[in-house]
Amino acid sequence: MNKTNEFPKDFLWGGAIAANQVEGGWNLDGKGLSVADIASYKPNIDNKDYAAHMEISTSKIEEAIADKSDKWYPKRRGIDFYHRYKEDLAMFAELGFKTLRLSIAWSRLFPTGEEEKPNEAGVEFYRNVFKEMNRLGIKPIVTLSHYEMPLSLSLKYNGWVERRVIDDFVRFSTVCFKEYDQYVDYWLTFNEIDSIHRHPFTTAGIIPDKCTTGKEEQEVYQALHHQFVASALVTKVAHEVNAKNQVGCMLTKLMTYPLTCAPLDVELTLNKNLENHFYTDVQVKGEYPRMIEINLENRGIHLDISDEDRRILKENTVDFLTFSYYMSMAESGDPEAERTPGNTVLGVKNPYLPSTDWGWQIDPKGLKISMIELYDRYRIPMMIVENGMGSVDRIENGEIHDPYRVEYFKEHFKQMKEAIDEGVDLIGYTSWAPIDLVSAGTSQMSKRYGFIYVDADDEGNGTYNRMKKDSFDWYQKVIATNGASL
Ligand code: BG6
Questions:
Q1: Is 386 a catalytic residue?
Q2: How far is C-alpha 413 from the geometric centre of its chain's CA atoms?
Q3: Catalytic one among 179, 192, 219, 331?
Q4: 2: in domain
Q5: Residue 380's pLDDT band (cuts 50, 70, 90)
Q6: How far is CA 191 from CA 196, 255, 452, in A?
Q7: According to the model, what pLDDT value does residue 314 have?
Q8: How many separate domains does the chain show?
Q9: What's the CATH number where 440 sits?
Q10: Catalytic pick from 386, 396, 399, 422?
Q11: Half-sphere CA count of 422, side-chain side, radius 13 A
């Protein structure tokens, strides 16, 4: 391969956001409640304990529905992108973005998920956003489901546990493909589809106390199966609506290393990595891996998978693969091994790696290894659609100096370039997140990812004004030089 300092021609540099973490306007213009609107922020919880932040029950949902304010529900206010999207898109254009990954809030188009026709005001909002992006020359990469299904589907059907939700999702997605056809070429079906096991409510609307069978794990896997089928069906529709549409799947790449070369550590690590690849195996290869099916049966999990489902999966595989990468973990057979938090996981601490303020282990080399591993396994174009570090930023004399963020990205970009030079077909990169937003895991604002600062705190106080951090100029230069200025 011909090596230059630059990334491939037409490389899609950009950033990624999700509707529920930025928009706000949770009850405006006909939007229905989504599962994200009841995610609460709890000030006294250890900020590393994502599980405590994400705890859910029917009574907690009822309490949240009764509370009409956004005080303890930060995703209801986001960063007010609903009203400020032009200002934010202008800043992304100034950064030189070729692309922006964003999501559509299902409940803005279908408030309960079950309407026959979409809410016109919701359709109009995204049309205006895409028009503006088009004017600025920023290509959208649109995620159809990023942690915010209509709450009504969750309460009525326990979310994706019931098969009928597939039809509701196909109806919603079909409207998106048709309405935004002239603006959007790249679509992603489910954000981090694997995360259903780590937070079943945010991902699939599953409320643990609604499990009637006493087999919660089985219900989660069945819901996942419904999402796989839905993903394949909407891939088919996207291709029928317009052959130029490219549809991708999206994985949380959880790279795991053995803590030692003890064979048990290696075996446990192998199992972790096989499990992580199961989701992309289904969506890229169109079938369940044999070892996963046997493993599920051995665990007493019997899924309802029809021959028709298998045919749909096989005939409608994705065009490209995308993944998020934030950190890596280790695995060990020693139950006493020290653990550290990662992206909604608790893994064994790797003594060779530093960590962020939230304990996520920083591992640029792990990104290169992930890229090589995934490309070798699937051989289809790939995009990294989330990567970044959450940190505490401080304003000093009206400026924000964030050399740690620059360092994080620089080291990851170097590893990306190495993987590309070794043959990986990487077509795009969107950082998480170009602007500060509400954390998915902890609903904090103080866990900041952006090149752009937003003046708001965890309880919603602040002007919400935007301000550039030092890293803004750095990323702008990286894009302007197509990666040559690293
Ligand atoms: C990814 C999600 O898992 O991680 C994003 O797709 C999320 O929505 C990101 O924001 C970072 O996680 P957190 O919990 O720090 O916001």
A1: yes
A2: 20
A3: 192
A4: no
A5: very high
A6: 10, 18, 23
A7: 98
A8: 1
A9: 3.20.20.80
A10: 386
A11: 13
